[in-house]
Request: fold
Amino acid sequence: MKKLLTILALTLLLTTGANCALAYSTEGAMYYNEGLDFYSRGEYGKAIQSFKTAVEKDPDFVDAYYNLGSLYEFLKSNQSAIAAYSKIYQLDPNDKETVYKLAELYYKVGNTERALFYVNKITEKDDMYAKAKSLKNQIVLTAQKAAAKNALSTTNSAIAQNRSIVDKFSGPTGLAVDSKGVLYVASYTDNCIYKVMPNGQSQLYTKNPALGGPIGLAFDSMDNLYVANYAKNNILKINKAGQVYTFMTNITNPYYLIIKGNFMYITEQGNNTVVRYKLY
Reply:
């Protein structure tokens, strides 16, 4: 829980002028301190009510929201904790501690899309980047497993009689088929790409050092394979001879890509955008 803010201290802050960042109301501070007292005695229900009253009296009371969120988190009430921390994010989007907590909580409740939205806001210049990077990897892998499970469940229920397993891969992600009917499978975990022949036989296609978390795959009209290289923030191009080139850089966490006519479309998850690129 954050430090106790006494009414006396707040009164002094209120009289120092407009430059003070913690100019909370005296009435809000009374309920805030009351909440801390209840918390220290283990009366969590009363503490929650006091913190709620504090933010009703002063809607900008960041410390009260933080303590409310922390208490909900302690009580495993994750959705309520998310609501409290979201108030802090609205007041100060640059509070990276709160951003990380929101990412972590959304991950806990199974909302990987929102978890990625928040964790992507923590950059290399932030102190929490190492923790955020580790959490992000967990989120991505969980999302992939969930997508695979949902796809398998849909297939089982809809066309169970036609279902067959092509092969087993480590962390399979993107799929693409070339003009000859050969299936290509990206492996996020192994940083490689497999190919599956029409007869069902699979083999390693490439495990080039340039690959880093491949996800989306797509072929152009000349059977050049493009790879959304999630962990390395670029798009790779692999020609028919198997040579690997860096085709596009400065793409933040590319996820999926498709090619339609002369254009390539890329989902750029790190920036919450879709990029369109003219191929030729």
Observations:
- Residues 3-21 have pLDDT under 50 and may be disordered.
- The chain has two domains: 7-138, 172-278.
- The first helix runs from residue 7 to 14.
